[in-house]
UniProtKB/TrEMBL annotation:
<comment type="similarity">
    <text>To bacterial alkanal monooxygenase alpha and beta chains.</text>
</comment>
<dbReference type="InterPro" id="IPR011251">
    <property type="entry name" value="Luciferase-like_dom"/>
</dbReference>
<dbReference type="Pfam" id="PF00296">
    <property type="entry name" value="Bac_luciferase"/>
</dbReference>
<feature type="domain" description="Luciferase-like">
    <location>
        <begin position="1"/>
        <end position="300"/>
    </location>
</feature>
<protein>
    <submittedName>
        <fullName>Luciferase</fullName>
    </submittedName>
</protein>
<dbReference type="InterPro" id="IPR019949">
    <property type="entry name" value="CmoO-like"/>
</dbReference>
<dbReference type="GO" id="GO:0005829">
    <property type="term" value="C:cytosol"/>
</dbReference>
<dbReference type="InterPro" id="IPR036661">
    <property type="entry name" value="Luciferase-like_sf"/>
</dbReference>
<dbReference type="GO" id="GO:0016705">
    <property type="term" value="F:oxidoreductase activity, acting on paired donors, with incorporation or reduction of molecular oxygen"/>
</dbReference>
<dbReference type="InterPro" id="IPR050766">
    <property type="entry name" value="Bact_Lucif_Oxidored"/>
</dbReference>
Length: 338
């Protein structure tokens, strides 16, 4: 089983945004040593509590201070941008860090309506053109526009020896079918969707034409996880993340609360029900419990890889969670991070 990381650079109540970004770097360096496959930075805009609005900037830093872990964005919110510029950025990263760069593609706005309007014009119209944006991006990455195309004479320089590996991120059948049509690997955000992921992933696999693309379909599943030495300890640590999500739903989005702050937060009856629903979407437990849950997911969804999203108030708890999981599951585990 392959394991990877999705990081959102969460800001805890005792941190600045600078602290959060530096902790993302520390996490990437630790997980590089622990044997994880890839480290993706999420893209969010004007969301209190999250520090990473420009993952492409962070990826240059992460790539320079890690050795083997793949780096990428989960995801570039393509309707905001011109495919040519996205290709230039990720070709540059792939030139600097050969055979280590992923380019995750998404269609969500990544923030409020106001932030969306500040980022780009006609976002919804660009969403409707998503298939054409993806097609142009792939042509720029592969330098293979047809001769008659208006962009046939230009290159997204620098052109790396090994192009970035494109992925489609999504939570719906529409994204799965788009990934299959263009031969892209597919990352399903299980924690963000209430849809039937089994049927969506199955549709992706059945629609994907391996003979055309000369490779088999590749799927990863993204899930929120908190692991600690005991399940009781993991549940205590996870309380910060759970209450933070309730605060966001209240419109009180801010920094990730401490465990003590979370314990003292008063919930309505409806919010207690919502918290239980959120908890059901998470994997919380000791290493053995987490391993069992991962194998169940692998069996149910027939996935090649699990991508882990872990948000805790303490950076030490977060790194320890990934370390315990690596030690329990990864065959290429190198050492316990200290």
């Amino acid at each position: 089983m392959k394991l990877s990381i999705l990081d959102q650079s969460p800001i805890s109540t005792n941190q600045t945004a600078s602290d959060a970004l530096n902790e993302s770097l520390n996490l990437a360096k630790a997980c590089d040593e622990l044997g994880y496959t890839r480290f993706w930075m999420a893209e969010h805009h004007d969301l209190p509590g999250l520090a990473c609005s420009a993952p492409e900037v962070m990826l240059g830093l992460l790539g320079a201070q890690t050795k083997q872990i793949r780096i990428g964005c989960g995801a570039v919110l393509l309707p905001h941008y011109k495919p040519f510029k996205v290709a230039e950025i990720y070709n540059t990263l792939a030139t600097l860090f050969p055979n280590r760069v992923d380019l995750g593609i998404g269609r969500s706005p990544g923030g409020s309506a106001e932030a969306t309007n500040a980022l780009s014009d006609n976002f919804l119209q660009q969403v409707f053109k998503m298939e054409h944006l993806v097609e142009d991006l792939l042509h720029f990455l592969n330098s293979d526009f047809p001769d008659e195309h208006q962009f046939a004479k230009i290159k997204a320089s620098p052109v790396p020896t090994i192009p970035p590996n494109p992925w489609m991120l999504g939570t719906s059948e529409k994204s799965a079918l788009l990934a299959a049509k263009y031969g892209l690997s597919y990352a399903f955000g299980l924690f963000m969707s209430d849809l039937d992921a089994v049927s969506i992933i199955d549709k992706y696999r059945k629609t994907f034409n391996s003979s055309v693309f000369n490779h088999v379909p590749e799927v990863l599943l993204t899930v929120p996880v908190v692991c600690a030495s005991t399940t009781e300890k993991a549940e205590e640590i996870a309380w910060s993340s759970l209450i933070w999500q309730i605060q966001q739903n209240r419109g009180e989005a801010g920094s990730v609360p401490s465990i003590e702050e979370a314990k003292n937060y008063e919930l309505t009856v409806k919010e207690k029900e919502e918290l239980n629903r959120l908890k059901e979407k998470m994997i919380i437990g000791d290493p053995q419990k987490v391993k069992k849950a991962f194998h169940q997911l692998q069996s149910i969804y027939d996935v090649d890889e699990i991508m882990i999203l872990t948000i805790t108030h303490s950076p030490t708890d977060r790194i320890q969670s990934y370390s315990l999981i690596a030690k329990e599951i990864l065959s290429n585990y190198n050492h316990e991070y200290r």
